[in-house]
Amino acid sequence: MTTTPSEQGVSLGMPQLPAPDYPDDVRARLEADAREIIGRYPDSRSALLPLLHLVQSEEGYVTRTGMQFCADMLGLTTAEVTAVATFYTMYRRKPSGDYQVGVCTNTLCAVMGGDAIFSALQEHLGVGNGETTGDGKVTLEHIECNAACDYAPVVMVNWEFFDNQTVESAKRLVDDLRAGAEVQPTRGAPLCTYKETARILAGFPDARPGAVEASGSAGPASLIGLRLAKGEQPEPRIVHPRGEERRDAAPQDESPADHLSAHDAPQKTSASDPAHPAGPVTEEGE
Amino acid sequence: MTVSTEFGGTSRPEAGGESSPEKLLAPVLSAYWDEDRSWTLDVYRRHEGYEGLRKALAMSPDDVIAYVKDSGLRGRGGAGFPTGMKWQFIPQGDGKPHYLVVNADESEPGTCKDIPLLFANPHALIEGIVIACYAIRSEHAFIYLRGEVVPVLRRLHAAVHEAYAAGYLGKNVLGSGLNLELTVHAGAGAYICGEETALLDSLEGRRGQPRLRPPFPAVAGLYACPTVVNNVESIASVPAILNKGKEWFRSMGSEKSPGFTLYSLSGHVANPGQYEAPLGITLRQLLDMSGGMRPGHRLKFWTPGGSSTPMFTDEHLDVPLDYEGVGAAGSMLGTKALQCFDETTCVVRAVTRWTEFYAHESCGKCTPCREGTYWLVQLLRDIEAGKGAMSDLDKLADIADNINGKSFCALGDGAASPIFSSLKYFREEYEQHITGGGCPFDPAKSTAWADHRTEVNA
Predict the structure, then answer these.
(1) NCBIfam families from the entry (chain A) (predicted)?
(2) Which of A75, A184, B27, B255 is 20 to 30 A (C-alpha) from A119?
(3) CATH code reported for the domain at B27-250
(4) How far apart are alpha carbons B138 and B61 in whole angstroms?
(5) Nearest neighbour of B271 by CB, restricted to A52, A234, A256
(6) Is A187 near chain B, with CB under 8 Å?
(7) For position A236, what pLDDT does the model report?
(8) Own/partner pairs for B82-90, CB < 8 Å, 24+ apart?
(9) Which residues of B touch A152 (CB under 8 A)?
């Protein structure tokens, strides 16, 4: 924004200047990608969502420059692009970490332990919802149902599945991410950065060898009915998929007293929450 | 019947008996998810993959539509509309392009069937797409996949690439004269885009907001052209119907709800996961065969098809899980997402969280839904925190009534469902929150690891 705090409420300030352009080499590269994306659709505007993923893959979030680029490529106004970019939760609107750690706090995961995991991670990392650790590695978010309820509670990192998490496994996960250790999802490929993930979302296949094969055909819960139908006994439910952790590890660092009121109080997830990025008080195009 | 719904893991159905999983389950789509590299074309072809397509291409497009219609296949995405009839609605000879859009925006809370299906067996969907496009005379299909599932996106990219290379997509598919482009499109995070007209707006590069109908997508859908929007599982079920025959398909399920489907068991059950069975199986049968609720706990409430379908209780264990059975019992089959909660779960907490979800995901287009969900959240938060009044319960019902059926799309109806149904079955629990000044439940007891602690401490 062009207004300084002292101007707020006093003057309407100057209209926002147009966003700066990408450097020529970046723009040339992105234009080639954008043309390929646009070519997939009968109508160019359909390319807007993938183009927003593309500009996010360049800068890690959707900048005004990125939105201007999308508008230029598609013959839209920046207002039209902004209206779309602000509607969808996967487009970030501020710089964020290399790894987005999303804890499912929709009802089923929340009840199964997602609420406990989310509050423990907030405390462990010292950040709130949507905030990034000081080292720029981890952005913590609570997310909605991610279609993995048979693996609850679920944590997503850069939109790869970390199934059947506990407080302890989730803490170790974020510690590993911050330490730069290689982290293997329960279902999905070895992690790439958020920018690289955004490029896959823009429709450019993951070229890393082994990425498609990683983690096998199906997770254990996906196979449970099939195994029963074949007359096999179901495998014991996997509660701790990540390494050598102990079954009793998780609950030790959270006392029931912490939970009773504090964490059962509804999270601020609705649009009525002024702190929520999708809330009505968020300024469009901010 | 056994008592395993009450005390999980204690009883095993006798082999060969009425509740034997071998007899009750019918893996078709999931039949070889346990094989190495199950998502590849090679493995798919080893299991008669793309044979249904060959049979379809030997028929006339109209005959394929009639065949799918005769099979009785109904939409697996929630509403249960007959798939063949949707295809038949596409006006032919109108000179406009026709489109097939596959709804892979699986986001309904509790629903987790399409994602494992696409992860383990994406070619079933692609084969179904080719058959459907041949039938409705479409030359361009889209898979609208929710963006938050990158592992699935990778495998879809790979499978579509394989299908092009093998001649199942592209120019002159298998020499049939059919030209077909298939575009995989990743969404960007919006539950509402699972609603078919919002999905179409989103695919056109707009905010995902539902359209007023009519016109229906079959007449004016994507780019105002005739469009079929089908759920992943519906389309993926088509190849097996063509390959094995409509009689085979009709031999499963009931007259009005024939065939097989994926049931997704989740929550406080001993063995959550995917169970593919003929339509009409009951939750009691599923729990009996799978080890019941987690040991020492009993079922309190469950959803038959995601959070937007009115909840059931242990009174409904024997409701046949097909479109008619669940409908007659006052709910909807929906997505067959069987979220099971045990007696440790506070129903007010569960409904509050779902309502927060609906408020967050309301697209804002229709006033009853946008404003109503906001006020529902305020009231529910107060009640859960012990600050509610008895009159709030009637107010909740009143607001839900003012949302239900009064918005463009079903999101509003979905938001009202948990309110109505929980007030119907658990009004006393709401009252306890009000009279007792707070929530009487300990959320730590409902976590997945709660009982491990007891064992350790014992």
Answers:
(1) nuoE_fam, PRK07539.1-1
(2) A184
(3) 3.40.50.11540
(4) 11
(5) A234
(6) yes
(7) 54
(8) B83/B230, B83/B234, B83/B235, B83/B238, B86/B218, B86/B228, B86/B230, B87/B132, B87/B135, B87/B136, B87/B228, B89/B216, B89/B218, B89/B219, B90/B136, B90/B137, B90/B218, B90/B226, B90/B228
(9) 266-267, 272, 448
> Which of B:277-336 have CB within 8 Å of A?
277, 289-291, 307
Q: Which fold has domain A15-85?
A: Arc Repressor Mutant, subunit A (1.10.10)
* Residue A209 to residue B182: CA distance in whole angstroms: 24
Residue matched to tokens 């095993």: B12
Contact between A44 and A38 (Cβ < 8 Å) = yes
Tell me what ipTM this predicted complex has. 0.94
Q: Which CATH number fits domain B260-336: 3.20.20.450, 3.10.20.600, 3.40.640.10, 3.30.565.10?
A: 3.10.20.600
Please give the distance of CA A117 from its chain centroid, rounded to a whole number: 16
pLDDT surpassing 90 at residue B452:
no
Packing angle of the helix pair B150-165, B122-136 (nearest 10 deg): 60
Fold of A99-190+206-263: Glutaredoxin (3.40.30)
DSSP secondary structure letters along A4-30 = -GGGTTT---PPPPPPPPPPHHHHHHH
Q: Residue A39: CB partners within 8 Å, gap ≥ 6?
A: none
List of chain A residues whose C-beta atoms are within 8 Å of the C-beta of residue B190: 87-89
* Residue B91 at interface with chain A, using a CB cutoff of 8 Å: no
Q: Is B250 in contact with B258 (CB distance < 8 Å)?
A: yes
Which residues in chain A (208-267) have CB-CB distances under 8 A to chain B? Answer: 211-231, 234, 237, 239, 247-248, 250-251, 254, 256, 259-261, 263-267
Look up the pTM and report it.
Answer: 0.90
* Residue A123, number of CB atoms within 10 A of its CB: 13
d(CA B204, CA A50): 11
Residue A254: list chain B partners with CB under 8 A. 444
Matching residue, tokens 């085979």 = B248
CA distance A215 to chain B (A): 9
Distance CA B437, CA B433 (A): 6
A55-102 residue pLDDT tens: 999 999 999 999 999 999 999 999 999 999 999 999 999 999 999 999
E strands in chain A: 99-104, 131-132, 138-143, 155-157, 160-162
The amino acid at residue B26 is A
Q: Across chain B, which distance is largest between two alpha carbons, in Å?
A: 74
User: What is the assigned CATH class of domain B347-440?
Assistant: mainly alpha
Residue that has been written with the tokens 């169970």 in this structure: B275
Domain residue ranges of chain B, discontinuous segments joined by +: 27-250, 260-336, 347-440
**DSSP string spanning B186-255?**
E--S-GGGGSHHHHHHHHTTS---PPPSSSPHHHH-GGGS-EEEEEHHHHHHHHHHHHH-HHHHHTSB-S
Q: Domain ranges in chain A? A: 15-85, 99-190+206-263
Residues B307-348: tens digit of each pLDDT: 999 999 999 999 999 999 999 999 999 999 999 999 999 999
Mutation site for A-interface testing, chosen from B99, B118, B148 by largest number of A Cβ within 10 Å: B148
Same fold for the pair B27-250 and B260-336: no
Among candidates B285, B382, B381, B302, which has minimal Cα distance to B338?
Answer: B302
CA distance A163 to chain B (A): 12
Q: Do A269 and B360 touch (CB under 8 A)?
A: yes
Q: Which residue has the higher pLDDT, B401 or A262?
A: B401
